[in-house]
Amino acid sequence: MQTTTDIFAQLISQRTNIATRQVQATLDLLADGATIPFIARYRKERTGALDEVQIADIAALGERLAEMAHRKDTIRKTITEQGLLTPELEARINACWDAAELEDIYLPYRPRRRTRAQVARERGLEPLATLLLLQREPNPHAAAAHYVGPDVADADAAIRGAQDIIAEQVAEDERSRQSVRRQYRRTAVITSKLIRRKAKDETEAADFEQRAAKYASYHDWSEPLRRCSSHRLLAMRRGEAEGVLRVAITIDDDEATAKLRQQWVRGKGEASALVADAVADAYRRLLQPSMENEFAAAAKTEADDEAIRVFADNLRQLLLAAPLGQHRVMGIDPGFRTGCKVVCLDAQGSLLHHEAIFPHPPAARRADAMERLADMLRSHAIEAIAIGNGTASRETRDFVEFTLKHMDLPTAPQVFVVSEDGASVYSASKAARDEFPTEDVTVRGAVSIGRRLMDPLAELVKIDPKSIGVGQYQHDVDQTKLKRALDQTVESCVNLVGVDVNTASQHLLTYVSGLGPALAKNIVEYRRDNGPFASRQQLKKVPRLGPAAFEQAAGFLRINAGTNPLDASAVHPERYALVEQMAKDQGCSVSQLMADASRRRAVDLSHYVGGEVGLPTLNDIMHELEKPGRDPRAQAETFQFDPTVSSIDDLRPGMVLPGIVTNITNFGCFVDVGVHQDGLVHISQLAARYVKHPSDIVHLHQHVRVLVTEVDVRRKRISLSMRDA
Questions:
Q1: Residue 1's pLDDT is what?
Q2: Which one of 313, 373, 442, 507 is separated from 707 by 20 to 30 angstroms, measured CA to CA?
């Protein structure tokens, strides 16, 4: 007899085209508490080398099927309590793994509020409904007269009650529901209309016009539901939630009713006419609203999933942005009226000094600002400067570069513009207050900007991903699903890069496979009380870090200059003995094997295949021995905006400008060209060929050249193209 896990594995295999044995192995590992990064990196032989995306899909489908199995238990229990669960019905429930079909099966047995049909049944009209459905009675009203009584005023009332019962039967019939569902699936149209309403006063009218202007494209919009993109559907639903738009999902009602009548109506007598009327009522009052809600929910779920995928992809690119590394950095949070907050950080990101300078109007103390900036650069031996990309960013960069030109420095520090999205959120967070309890939010924000240049991943994990500014309708989607997807993305990125256990913050350690907030805190406290970790084995001394957590986490934690050279690599401690055997067979130490390419080339991997170790793991080990603990991220690059443009008023169609990609959506990407307003490169303008998704062409923070095609100063909209730039 098949177990539930066997059934899940087969169903997931069918839906993903992944072999059943691979799915089964993955489900077993997940059930044992293994994380997705751990399974993908260290259990390739068991899963057939599935990647993180495939494993995440299996995990998500497994949870969905488990929820459906729980739903089935509830349904069986409810029907059993009614005394209506037959062996045939139970077999149908057991065999069903489609959510809509399962609810169709359950619908006639679902406890419900008192309906019109239920009232009619209580009045004894069900036999009349059955008689009408047979459509053989030549005189229905005469037959209905037999049911007149205290609760039924006359034959017409009896007929109406019987029709209510028939309408409910039609609406709950599986074939009826499937018929309407098929039509919705093929032909449903989503429409959006501007709501016209009379305002109470001018203020209310102005407020409504302002909100309505945001949805001008959808004041009279219609398209097939199956073609409606995620961003358009979410935009319409947001407009609906704001009371600006009325959104509907419809089909041809006459066609749907005609098909139902073909199914239910036989003959042309009076009884058949009454049944036909009941069928029309069933569609209009019960089936159509039910199906519209079902498809609205399904479309919203699909749009949510797509928006979440876009957000997660953007977040991954942001987290894996090129780090500058350990250098002495100056972070500048630019501003006009409040001045520029400047911080100086050492190579580990610790705050050395901070002060405010005022090079811009209204204070405009430029000479003093230059002198103080130069003094900080010299006294703290600054190697790189990070400037936030917010208000006064362009002006601050020009000021800094002007200052550097007039300084006599052996090597001028490089200047970088850094995204400051979310810096204000971090600066006011508990994490920032704990780290800098005596500093104000402006200092904390400038520190965050400087650290983002050094290591974007280590700094951005401290901020709620929704505040980083790379999403698409992130506040409109399912927040639970969004949080889970973003947490998985952060976990994936952290473990891909690896973490230095002796320098990592508690926030960064939280995302390491197998740890979490409590163990991350324990590691930091142990490190504080006992000094740096000398080996991975020492991690076992951390309170509550048991064998299971050690197995999951150890390979992703790095210890540089430790007692074992493998501790600085991604080789898992469970394979140390294997590497030591390789070194022994080559007549050298592990360190010598790692340092000597000729010795590594001499290793015949086939000699070490056996048990749970196959070529995928062995190849990973050899790559790590070649470059232990290598960082998969690129190197940070400087960027220069066109010096001739500084505001949207300077832009003219036909200009070709350098820019930085700041956000990617389904419909294109946004590019900063240095005028305090990002421009849009529509997906159709990304390349001189068909583009399925913008991420196929561009990535976040990519340096690009764009052609200005249109400038709307009043609406602050800039249209750009990369086709001819």
A1: 60
A2: 313
Share of the chain above pLDDT 70, in %: 99
Q: How far apart are CA 165 and CA 121, in angstroms?
A: 7
- Cα–Cα distance, 430 to 433 (Å, whole number): 5
Report the relative pairing of strands 329-333 and 245-250 from DSSP bridges: unpaired
Contacts 24+ apart (CB under 8 A), 28-36: 30/55, 30/58, 30/59, 30/62, 31/5, 33/548, 33/552, 34/552, 35/491, 35/495, 35/513, 35/514, 35/552, 36/488, 36/491, 36/492
Residue whose C-alpha is closest to residue 554's, from 532, 576, 570: 570
Q: Which helix (H) or strand (E) holds 355?
A: strand 351-357
Q: In this predicted model, which residue has the larger pLDDT, 173 or 430?
A: 173
Count of other CB atoms within 10 angstroms of residue 446: 31
Strand ranges of the sheet holding 245-250, from the earlier edge strand across to the other edge = 220-224, 189-194, 245-250
Spatial contact of 568 and 560, defined as CB atoms under 8 Å apart: yes
Q: What is the CA radius of gyration of the chain?
A: 33
Per-residue pLDDT averaged across 180-209, rounded? 89
The vertex-310 CA angle with 249 and 446, nearest 5°, equals: 130
Contact 151, 169 (CB under 8 A): no
Q: Read off the pLDDT of each residue in 253-282 and give the average, rounded to a whole number.
A: 95
Q: What proportions of the chain, in percent to the nearest 5, are helix, strand and coil? A: 55, 10, 35
Segment (H or E) for 189: strand 189-194
Cis peptide before 362, with omega less than 30 degrees from 0? yes
- One DSSP character per residue, 109-145 reads GS-----HHHHHHHTT-HHHHHHHHHT--S-HHHHHG
Q: Which domains does the chain have, with CATH numbers?
A: 4-109 (1.10.10.650), 116-305 (1.10.3500.10), 329-454 (3.30.420.140), 509-626 (1.10.150.310), 648-721 (2.40.50.140)
pTM metric for this prediction: 0.86
In terms of C-beta density within 10 A (0-12 exposed, 13-18 middle, 19 or more buried), how is residue 544 classed? exposed
Nearest to 546 by CA among 157, 22, 28, 33: 33
pLDDT of residue 472: 67
